[in-house]
């Protein structure tokens, strides 16, 4: 148990985990996306974490599906008039190097100083396809986060903020604080992945050893209702399980779940035992 727990020493290590599965997906002949830098940024630690992934996440189906859905959502949002992407807790994301983006499009990444320094070194010499800025900042500090947003959003009118793979590691109070911080006129959309209580309970049980140092926390019974109470409304919702089934990535033992009606995310999810996980795009006001 101790050896497994040491693979993920903190939340930042999960970024390497996701990158390892992006690399595996990119090597498939029917890949949903191609990320030539994924294996490099995953490194040995990322590959080791992936090797200890629980059966519930077989082949990283949920992480691969999430990546594809957010890829598509970002491009759709840019087509809808987005003038900037601010990727908070960007981890080892490499979208600025692989998505078809306008060369002058502003893309701002932010993460902890140690991770940013490592990423800069790993990607030294690589050229992004857009106007990329990478910022070292502790986003958990509200004052520092506010200063970062002031600088990152200067001149923006319809920005998209991305917090992929972040909020379920936060407490309810942390999510409330983040939602308030992002309720700014320069931000038109907020893209993130959300899980209800049933998913968080299952994942917490399955990853007790692996994520002992980075446990999942945030998982309300009705995630979209939680954000609606904070003034945020979902205008795009893509459930992971149905998308994974469509992409032929859903594990065989989970396919029977697609035979039953899926919860309507736009209505209150009253039954906490029904698992529900989605990529969503929120608007404020």
Please explain how this structure is put together:
Its EC number is 2.1.1.-. One of its GO terms (molecular function) is methyltransferase activity. Keywords: Methyltransferase, S-adenosyl-L-methionine, Transferase. Belongs to the UPF0677 family. This protein is of the alpha/beta class. The protein has eleven helices and seven strands. The protein has a seven-stranded mixed sheet with strand order 3-2-1-4-5-7-6, sandwiched between helices. Strand 1, helix 5 and strand 2 form a beta-alpha-beta unit. Helix 2 crosses helix 3 and helix 4 packs across helix 11.
Chain-wise SSE layout:
Layout: H1 2-5, H2 13-26, H3 38-51, H4 61-79, E1 84-88, H5 95-98, E2 106-111, H6 113-122, E3 131-136, H7 142-152, E4 159-163, H8 172-181, E5 187-195, H9 197-206, H10 223-229, E6 232-239, H11 240-246, E7 277-284
Parallel strand pairs: 1-2, 1-4, 2-3, 4-5
Antiparallel strand pairs: 5-7, 6-7
Helix pairs in contact: 2-3, 4-11
Kindly report how far apart the N and C termini lie.
46 Å
Question: What can be said about the biggest beta sheet?
Answer: 7 strands, mixed
Instruction: Give the overall shape.
Output: globular
Helix content: 25-40%
Runs in which pLDDT lies below 50 for 5 or more consecutive residues are none
Tell me what portion of residues adopts beta-strand conformation.
Answer: 15-25%
Q: Report the structural category.
A: alpha/beta
Q: What is the radius of gyration computed over CA atoms, rounded to a whole number of angstroms?
A: 18 Å
Strand order in space, largest sheet: 3-2-1-4-5-7-6
Order of helices and strands: HHHHEHEHEHEHEHHEHE
- Average pLDDT taken over every residue: 93
Q: What's the total helix number?
A: 11
Number of strands: 7
